[in-house]
Specification:
Layout: E1 10-15, H1 45-55, E2 60-65, E3 83-86, H2 96-104, E4 117-121, E5 124-126, H3 130-136, E6 142-147, E7 158-161, E8 167-171, E9 184-195, H4 200-212, H5 222-231, E10 235-240, E11 246-248, H6 252-266
Helix pairs in contact: 2-4, 2-5, 4-5
Length: 271
């Protein structure tokens, strides 16, 4: 349980995706990825997040959903209130960047300049104590949670920094390219960030710019927003070395590993 000093106040879970890459088996093809069972008890990705975030101190949790996910109930909601926000952009135009912007600009005043806000993808399973690592790290800047142990692959978002350790660029397919020459790879981004109150105005402004002016405004991802914070040297990294503490789930094989290895390993730590 987080102390008041190292608390998380609010959370935004990006849960609008269908997970088409994972939908190749009968049990997954008709269920959006955030609602897939990850345990024989029926526990879903969203259940996992609600329970872990509440234990970390979150008193307000928001889920950004699509027509396929919006308003759906999961078991944890019987005890943990959560508010859905609708992303009704057409699927061929919308990405997690749109969901992020819709949450930021919703009527709920999530980025109020006072609260510590987690922004995260829905398709990850992790050691619940990672939220304590994220919230208790020193410094006042917003931060991205990064796994320092990584495979050399073009399929994951890698984070790169200069000698001062401040992240400058992140993305897929960058390892070994001239774009990151002279930079150090800090590891793989987990898709989990902490937005500090002092940075809320910056996050709002950058999200609005990405939606209006970025050439990636169609299918924009939340990483497009985060990249602008990196360019402004307004983001730090919290790194952990044990790659068994967090796993993103994009493929049928990864879904199988999540169910057979990740959930059994960390379920005892889930409040």
């Amino acid at each position: 349980m987080s102390s008041q000093t190292h608390r998380i106040d609010k959370a935004i879970i990006l849960a609008a995706g269908m997970g088409k890459r994972i939908s190749k088996t009968p049990e997954t093809q008709n269920t959006p990825k955030p609602l897939l069972p990850i345990h024989e008890s029926g526990l879903t990705f969203i259940d996992w997040h609600l329970r872990a975030l509440t234990a970390a101190g979150a008193r307000e949790i928001y889920l950004v959903g699509s027509n396929a996910t919006f308003g759906k109930k999961v078991a944890a909601m019987e005890k943990i209130p959560a508010t859905w926000i609708m992303n009704d952009f057409p699927g061929d135009q919308s990405g997690s960047g749109h969901s992020t912007h819709l949450a930021f600009t919703s009527k709920h005043d999530i980025l109020d300049g006072k609260s510590r806000v987690v922004l995260m993808d829905a398709d990850v399973v992790y050691d619940p104590t990672l939220f304590d690592d994220l919230a208790s790290a020193p410094g006042k800047r917003s931060r991205s949670l990064v796994c320092g142990t990584y495979r050399e692959t073009d399929e994951e978002v890698m984070v790169f920094a200069a000698d001062d350790g401040v992240p400058r660029v992140h993305g897929k397919g960058l390892l070994g390219t001239p774009t990151v020459k002279g930079l150090t790879c800090l590891g793989e981004a987990t898709g989990i960030l902490l937005l500090e109150p002092e940075d809320h105005a910056h996050w709002l402004a950058v999200a609005a710019w990405c939606m209006q002016f970025s050439t990636a405004k169609t299918r924009s991802e939340h990483e497009d927003i985060t990249q602008r914070l990196m360019l402004a040297r307004a983001l730090d990294v919290v790194s952990f070395a044990d790659d068994t503490r967090c796993m993103e789930c994009d493929t049928p094989d990864e879904y199988a590993v999540v169910r057979s290895e990740m959930v059994p390993r960390w379920l005892p730590a889930l409040p």
